[in-house]
Q: What sequence folds into this?
């Protein structure tokens, strides 16, 4: 069991979740742009 | 008042605006309609998703009834061919994007936080936004039917140039609807990934996670990789239609076949987006009613990941007849057939889990067993279609229609029905009418086979798909198929009654563990599941004891 208090754990989890969401969102945006870029005419 | 209530929690609750009193985060839901508009609670949003999906299922089902009624006998009886094509197009789009996908997202919303010991989804406000985009997108898609020139009539695959040069004006609204649906799916996937990676109980390792969570985790990555490609495809359609580009226009130096490549690069993973969570559901239900730990847990995880990876390298099997070098056909054929290996691992693991189990056949188990048998039929016909030389015969026939309906109706949809019967008592604290539910099961299972099995024969005999009229030799099987279709459609009236009756009048369930042999953290919270759960993360001991794949001696 983690030594963090529940509040610290929640804060840490939410911070990590925002970073994860940012990275994954950036990947999705990258794939969208790449799809159009490689098919340009 | 919980001892865990703190300023930080109050701040989070205040930001998310999900309650009235900020002094106590053990509040119930807000009263009235605005509860559903403003909610950031994963259980509320899960409920919204599931009801939305069910509504769209009924609308898409009504369109299927129009299709089967027209095909009841040869000749044109009820609708114009153009309207028939709108029905096939919208039926497919609504079922894929409006019914199956949102239903799985709804189940993910309800279950993932409960199964990993998290308080909620990682990004609750985005979760609210993800859902509330859907009704507007769905309404926009449906509104195209009432526009001048009619709605989209080019099939759910919307191949260019049918969907660009020769499409009605409403296609731009269709494009916007697809953009919004895709945006909603991507946000949902981001939320699932962030929740599983960051919010799960600190003592839960990845390989401790239930299979439903694992399959959704992998599905979310498929969504992240596939949906932006679809968004790219419809964006290029939009610019071809309105801004003078020529991505898919041969006259301007573009290539219509390019559209098919892009579409199926999205489209094949999309198939797995709609079936991997189903695998997870069945992997939760079978151990419960076989009273045995899931056989081959880690092989299930690796098989799911393998299927997901392979799904990105087989898209060409949808295009064997679009003009492809023989080497390309061979590659796509072998790669496609390779998918049967991890899929077979799963089917054998489910069967082995049941082998010598102390089985009982409550309604969720009936649906799960039906899934294993009927999805396997859909898988086998998929193998047949994956054989390039044989596909010359099957391409664009009713054999394809039979194949993907076995996969998506008796596969994806049946798993969703299984999941609803399995978890509904936990959600609402009431038990459904088991007798009626079993009558509904047998009604649906017989009628769905009467509906779809004859379509194999129609396809093998050469009946093309997407036609409102056909030659006389196809009449008998079409009539049988339509009778099955009407019976299957009617079964949803009974299903609606069973669910509403359960929620309103069902016998109250008090046990936290609704099914005596069920394992999982969701069965450790009270029934019905409280508005807020897991203020305190579950312990390692509890996680291991509630694992459906690890047998702990002396523990329930």
A:
């Amino acid at each position: 069991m983690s030594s963090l208090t529940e509040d610290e754990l929640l804060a840490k989890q939410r911070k990590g979740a925002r970073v994860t969401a940012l990275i994954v969102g950036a990947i999705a945006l990258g794939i969208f742009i790449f799809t159009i870029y490689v098919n340009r005419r | 008042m919980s001892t865990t209530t703190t300023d930080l929690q109050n701040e989070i609750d205040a930001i998310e605006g999900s309650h009235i009193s900020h002094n106590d985060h053990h509040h119930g839901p807000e009263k009235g309609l605005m509860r559903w508009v403003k909610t950031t609670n994963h259980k509320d949003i899960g409920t919204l998703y599931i009801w939305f999906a069910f509504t769209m299922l009924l609308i898409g089902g009504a369109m299927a009834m129009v299709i089967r009624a027209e095909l009841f006998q040869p000749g044109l009886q009820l609708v114009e061919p153009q309207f028939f094509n709108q029905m096939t197009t919208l039926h497919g789009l609504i079922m894929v994007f409006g019914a199956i996908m949102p239903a799985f997202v709804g189940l993910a919303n309800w279950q993932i936080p409960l199964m990993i010991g998290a308080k909620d989804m990682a990004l609750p406000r985005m979760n609210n936004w993800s859902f509330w985009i859907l009704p507007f997108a769905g309404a926009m898609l449906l509104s195209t039917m009432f526009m001048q020139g009619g709605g989209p009539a080019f099939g759910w695959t919307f191949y260019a140039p049918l969907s660009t040069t020769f499409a009605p004006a409403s296609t731009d609204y269709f494009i916007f609807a697809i953009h919004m649906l895709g945006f909603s799916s991507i946000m949902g996937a981001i939320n699932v990934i962030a929740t599983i990676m960051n919010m799960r109980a600190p003592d839960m390792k990845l390989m401790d996670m239930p299979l439903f969570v694992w399959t959704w985790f992998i599905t979310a990555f498929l969504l992240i990789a596939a949906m932006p490609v679809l968004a790219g495809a419809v964006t290029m359609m939009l610019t071809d239609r309105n801004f003078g580009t020529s991505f898919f226009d041969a006259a301007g130096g573009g290539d219509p076949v390019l559209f098919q490549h892009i579409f199926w690069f999205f489209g094949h993973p999309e198939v797995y987006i709609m079936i991997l969570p189903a695998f997870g559901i069945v992997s939760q239900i079978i151990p419960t009613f076989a009273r045995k730990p899931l056989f081959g847990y880690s092989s299930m995880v690796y098989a799911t990941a393998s299927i997901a990876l392979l799904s990105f390298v087989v898209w060409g099997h949808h295009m064997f007849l679009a003009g492809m070098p023989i080497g390309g056909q061979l590659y796509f054929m072998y790669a496609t057939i390779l998918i049967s290996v991890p899929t077979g691992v799963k089917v054998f693991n489910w069967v082995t889990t049941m082998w010598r189990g102390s089985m009982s056949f409550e309604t969720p188990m009936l649906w799960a067993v039906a899934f294993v048998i009927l999805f396997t039929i859909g898988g086998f016909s998929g193998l047949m279609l994956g054989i390039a030389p044989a596909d010359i015969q099957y391409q664009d026939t009713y054999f394809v229609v039979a194949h993907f309906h076995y996969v998506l109706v008796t596969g994806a949809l049946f798993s969703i029905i299984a999941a609803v019967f399995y978890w509904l008592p936990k959600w609402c604290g009431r038990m459904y009418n088991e007798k009626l539910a079993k009558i509904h099961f047998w009604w649906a299972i017989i009628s769905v086979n009467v509906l779809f099995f004859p379509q194999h024969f129609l396809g093998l005999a050469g009946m093309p798909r997407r036609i409102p009229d056909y030659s006389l030799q196809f009449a008998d099987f079409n009539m049988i198929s339509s009778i099955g279709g009407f019976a299957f459609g009617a079964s949803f009236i009974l299903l609606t009654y069973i669910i509403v009756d359960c929620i309103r009048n069902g016998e109250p369930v008090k046990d936290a563990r609704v099914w005596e042999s069920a394992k999982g953290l969701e069965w450790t919270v009270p029934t019905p599941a409280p508005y807020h759960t897991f203020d305190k993360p579950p312990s390692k001991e509890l996680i291991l004891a509630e694992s459906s794949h690890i047998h702990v001696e002396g523990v329930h």
Observations:
- The radius of gyration of chain B is 23 Å.
- Confidence is low (pLDDT under 50) at residues 1-9, 15-24 of chain B.
- DSSP finds 18 helices and two strands in chain B.
- The beta strands of chain B are 430-431, 507-508.
